[in-house]
Write a structure and sequence with these properties.
This protein has 334 residues and is mainly α. The strands form two sheets. It has a three-stranded parallel beta sheet with strand order 1-2-3. A two-stranded parallel sheet has the order 4-5. Helix 4 runs parallel beside helix 13, helix 7 packs across helix 8 and helix 9 packs antiparallel against helix 12. The chain has 13 helices and five strands. The relative contact order is 0.15. The protein binds tryptophanyl-5'AMP. The site of tryptophanyl-5'AMP has 25 residues, from strand 1, helix 1 and helix 7.
C-alpha cells in the first residue's frame, strides 16, 4: 500500500466547481499524463475546495464524478495512480486546521487570487476563500509530495505551502518533504479568447472566452472563430499580438511543436487559417476524451471502485503524516 518503491511523489488536484476548460487541461492535466510513469501519483478531486463558493448539491455530485472521469479519459491509468475524492480522506480537513494554526493572516492576505476576489466581493467574501491555500498546503504535505504539476496561477499557493512546511519543520522537527512546482513550458497560462491578456477561466461570465473540455466540435469551432485577434493581419509570436500568441500557444501545447516553428508555416496566411488549425487541433485532442468520459459516466459502479480504492490508499498514507503532526504538536496519541 505504502510507497515502497523509490519513486518520487506527485500530488495535484482540480476543483469540481464548474466545467473544466482547455486551460485546466493544457496547464495541468495533460502534464499529469506525461509524468505518471516516473512518479508515484495522487490525483485528487478537491470537493472541499469547491465549496468555498456555494455549489448546487446535485451539480457538485455530477461534476465530482465527471472530473474523475476526465482524469481517467485523458489517459491517466487508474491501475497505476491513486485517484480519490478529497472529502473521503478526513486527514485533509484535520491537517488543514493544524496548519492554519501555523499560518499568518499577513501571508494569506498577500495571495493575489484572494486579493482579486475580495476586491470584487468586499466584506461578504467567504472565509473559506481566505483560508483555502492552507487546505491546499495540507493536501500537498500529507503525501510527502516532491512535485506539484499546476498552471501558473497556482504557483503562489505552492510557494505558501513550502513556507508553511518549512516553518513547521523548523518549529517541531522535520516532518514534511518540501515540494517543488512544475509548470509546462507552453500552456501554463492559457488566455481568455475574448480578452487575451486575462487568464482563461471557467468562472468568466462570457462563455465565448473559454473552451470547455466537453464542448462539442461545432461549439469549439464557433468560439475559436470568434476569438479576439488584432488588426495587424500577420501571424507572429509576440506579446504585442496576445490573441494570436494565445492561439499559437494552444496549438503548440497540443501538438508539441514550438510556437516559433509553427509561425514559419503561416507566412502569407491569415487569421482564418490559424483559427481553423487551432479548432482542428483542439477538436482532435478533445473528441476522444469526450467519448471516453461519456462511457465512464455510464458505469458508476466502476468509478466507485476506483475512488474507494484510491481513498483507502490515500487515507493510509495521509493519516500517517497527520499522526506525526499531532504527536509533534503535543496531542495525546489515541
Ligand atoms: P483549479 O481547479 O482552479 O485549476 C486546476 C488546474 O488548472 C490550472 N489552470 C490553468 N492552467 C493554464 N491556463 C489556465 N487558464 C488555467 N486555469 C486553471 C490550475 O493552475 C490548476 O493546476 N487550488 C487548486 C486546486 C488544488 C490543488 C491542490 C492543486 C487544491 N489542492 C493541491 C495542486 C495541489 C485550484 O483551485 O485549481
Amino acid at each position: 500500500m505504502e510507497n515502497t518503491d523509490s519513486k518520487k511523489v506527485i500530488f495535484s488536484g482540480m476543483q469540481p466547481s464548474g466545467e473544466l476548460t482547455l486551460g485546466n487541461y493544457l496547464g495541468a492535466l495533460k502534464n499529469w499524463v506525461n509524468l505518471q510513469e516516473e512518479y508515484d501519483c495522487y490525483f485528487c478531486v478537491v470537493d472541499l475546495h469547491a465549496i468555498t463558493v456555494r455549489q448546487k448539491p446535485a451539480d457538485l455530485r455530477r461534476r465530482t464524478l465527471e472530473l474523475l472521469s476526465i482524469y481517467i479519459a485523458s489517459g491517466i491509468d487508474p491501475e497505476k495512480n491513486t485517484f480519490f475524492i478529497q472529502s473521503h480522506v478526513p486527514a485533509h480537513s484535520e491537517a488543514a486546521w493544524l496548519l492554519t494554526c501555523n499560518s499568518y493572516v499577513g501571508e494569506l492576505s498577500r495571495m493575489t487570487q484572494y486579493k482579486d476576489k475580495s476586491q470584487k466581493a468586499g466584506d461578504s467574501i467567504g472565509a473559506g476563500l481566505f483560508t483555502y491555500p492552507v487546505l491546499m498546503a495540507a493536501d500537498i504535505l500529507l503525501y510527502q509530495t516532491n512535485l506539484v504539476p499546476v498552471g501558473k496561477d497556482q504557483l503562489q499557493h505552492l510557494e505558501l505551502a513550502r513556507d508553511i512546511a518549512t516553518r513547521f519543520n523548523n518549529t517541531y522537527s522535520p516532518t514534511f518533504a518540501i515540494p517543488e512546482g512544475y509548470t509546462p513550458k507552453i500552456g501554463a497560462k492559457v488566455m481568455s479568447l475574448q480578452e487575451p491578456t486575462k487568464k482563461m477561466s471557467k468562472s468568466d461570465d462570457n462563455v465565448n472566452s473559454f473552451i470547455l473540455i466537453m464542448d462539442p466540435p461545432e461549439v469549439i469551432r464557433k468560439k475559436i472563430s470568434r476569438a479576439v485577434t488584432d488588426s495587424l493581419g500577420v501571424i507572429n509570436y509576440t506579446d504585442e499580438q496576445p490573441g494570436v500568441k494565445n492561439l499559437l500557444d494552444i496549438i503548440s501545447a497540443i501538438k508539441g511543436v514550438s510556437p516559433l516553428d509553427l509561425v514559419k508555416d503561416y507566412e502569407g496566411k491569415g487569421y482564418a487559417d490559424l483559427k481553423e488549425d487551432a479548432a482542428n487541433a483542439i477538436i482532435g485532442e478533445l473528441s476522444p476524451i469526450q467519448e471516453k468520459v461519456k462511457a465512464l459516466m455510464s458505469d458508476k459502479k466502476a468509478l466507485e471502485a476506483i475512488y474507494k480504492q484510491g481513498a483507502e490508499k490515500a487515507s493510509y498514507v495521509g493519516t500517517k503524516t497527520l499522526r506525526k503532526m499531532q504527536k509533534k504538536i503535543g496531542f495525546i496519541p489515541r
